[in-house]
Design a protein that fits this description.
The protein is of the alpha+beta class and 442 residues long. The chain has helices at residues 17-34, 48-56, 60-64, 90-99, 149-166, 192-204, 213-221, 235-239, 250-266, 311-314, 329-343, 364-376, 390-400, 409-414, 435-440, and strands spanning 38-39, 45-47, 68-71, 81-85, 109-118, 130-139, 180-186, 271-272, 284-292, 301-307, 322-328, 352-358, 381-383, 401-407, 416-421, 427-431. Bound molecules: histidyl-adenosine monophosphate (HAM).
Length: 442
């Protein structure tokens, strides 16, 4: 019989790697709490229309990459419905904001999420069909200050803090620019963008024959996507195309200037990238991406985000300007692993406090009782069982724990235990009453 495997583009995350995922998520949760964010968990599948209307019918994500199916009615009272596995979480969060009338509180909503997303992309390193995002959204009615450039800068400063705390260095000459880099742009308001797209279309008309086939098509269907082209021969032409900065109205120009000045004041470095227009239709004004050259190859966008001042209205809700981001957690993990490898620091060095080794089956009960007692005292403990040979127990315990506690007949009867510390090779006798304290020592 053929064996079954995880579906192409999906993968199992196993220990010890999952310890790193948990550490990343714990760091993110701690930072979200410090910045006043609360957690939101939206369903993994939604009405297909949410993404068609929110993310945009013409985007690659919606037109090519969604997992969509017709969900059959189970009863006469139900209608068949087109459902889609969420390819991203911003549309779901804004739908929940509208559905639960969060805007009626008048307060700014700061929401974060951690969870899987699904896109039928061509799998490669850092690009999967099920991948994880750690994301956040800040939105609310206009009087809550949701439109303020300070909110954009706060989100970006929080991201810089998160990457710093995770130990990902900022790009510098010293690290050969392998650290993180923030690329920033403004795509203007919903009225600026169509003016720019028209100008781009006109500028591309006489030039497109010289561009790659993909760009020739994009010039017709979605001229903004020409700016994402990576074909080396096209770059000079594309760099000379009109820039969106020249099409921003006064309010958008001022907003972008304020974002930059707050970032300067908080010491968050950034590079202006006039070509950063992003692949989802809801963006207005500030757009950004953080890249990392460590461990990611061509999929070097660690995270992306921006402002979406019209999304709530596009989904039939009240005016609720907002800004947010999503980190590709898989890519963050790849970056951390690559950094650990290049610095020679082990990532998964967290060993248990103790391994308890009963010397015979007769000591099994005492071993489990001792493990229970030590675990209740807050120690991390693994327990062997009495059919193990001593040498094998030692080798096994060494890979798992910092110390081994030997439990033979003598130890059980006297209550004096033999403890060996692997790092030093030191072996000592410890009275039962002192054991927890002795094992807690580093
Ligand atoms: P996005 O740029 O489509 O934005 O995705 C954000 C991040 O998710 C990317 O930078 C990348 O790290 C990761 N990512 C995307 N696709 C894949 C994949 N197939 N495999 C692995 N990682 C992937 C959004 O999703 C927006 N919702 C972000 C946002 C929030 N904008 C405003 N608020």
């Amino acid at each position: 019989m053929s064996t079954l495997k995880a579906v192409r583009g999906t993968r199992d995350l196993l220990p010890p790697e999952t310890a790193l995922w948990n550490r990343v998520e714990a760091t993110a949760r701690a930072i979200f709490a410090r910045y006043g964010f609360g957690e939101i968990r939206t369903p993994i599948f939604e009405d297909t229309q949410l993404f068609v209307r929110g993310v945009g019918e013409e985007t690659d994500v919606v037109s090519k990459e969604m997992y969509t199916w017709e969900d059959r009615a189970r009863a006469q009272s139900e209608k068949a419905q087109s459902l889609t596995l969420r390819p991203e979480n911003t549309a779901g969060v804004v739908r929940a904001y509208i559905e639960h009338k969060l805007g009626d509180t008048g307060m700014l909503q700061k929401l974060f999420y951690i969870g899987p997303q699904f896109r039928r992309e061509r799998p490669q390193r850092g690009r999967y069909r099920q991948f994880w995002q750690i994301g956040a959204e800040v939105l609310g009615p206009v009087p809550s200050g949701a439109e303020s450039a300070l909110r954009d800068a706060e989100v970006l400063e929080m991201l810089a803090t998160l990457l710093d705390e995770l130990g990902i260095p900022r790009a510098s000459e010293a690290n050969g620019n392998t650290g993180w880099k923030l690329w920033l742009n403004s795509v203007g308001s919903s009225t600026d963008r169509p003016r720019y797209i028209n100008a781009l279309k006109s500028a591309l008309e006489p030039l497109k024959g010289a561009l790659c086939v993909d760009c020739q098509r994009r010039a017709e269907t979605n001229p903004l996507r020409v700016l994402d082209c990576k074909v080396p021969e096209d770059q000079e032409t594309i760099n000379n195309l009109p820039k969106i900065a020249d099409f921003l109205d006064e309010a958008s120009t001022e907003h972008f200037a304020q974002v930059r000045s707050v970032l300067d004041a908080c010491g968050v470095p950034y590079v202006i990238d006039p070509r950063l227009v992003r692949g989802l239709d809801y963006y207005t004004r500030t757009t950004f991406e953080f890249t990392s050259a460590s461990g990611l190859g061509t999929q070097n966008a660690l995270l992306g985000g921006g402002r979406y001042d019209g999304l709530s209205e596009m989904l039939g809700g009240p005016k609720a300007p907002g800004i947010g981001f999503a980190i590709g957690e898989d890519r963050l993990i790849l970056t951390l692993q690559a950094l650990a490898e290049s610095s020679g620091n082990a990532l998964n060095s967290d060993k248990l406090d103790a391994y308890i080794a009963p010397m015979g089956i007769a000591q099994n009960a005492a071993a489990l009782a001792l493990a229970k007692e030590l675990r209740a005292a807050g120690l991390s403990v693994e327990v062997g069982e009495g059919s193990f040979r001593l040498k094998k127990s030692f080798e096994f315990a060494d890979t798992l724990a910092r110390r081994i506690v030997i439990l033979g007949e003598d130890e059980v009867s006297t209550g004096i235990l033999t403890v060996k510390t692997f790092a030093t090779g030191e072996q000592t006798k410890v009275p039962h009453a002192d054991l927890a304290a002795a094992l807690a020592r580093s």
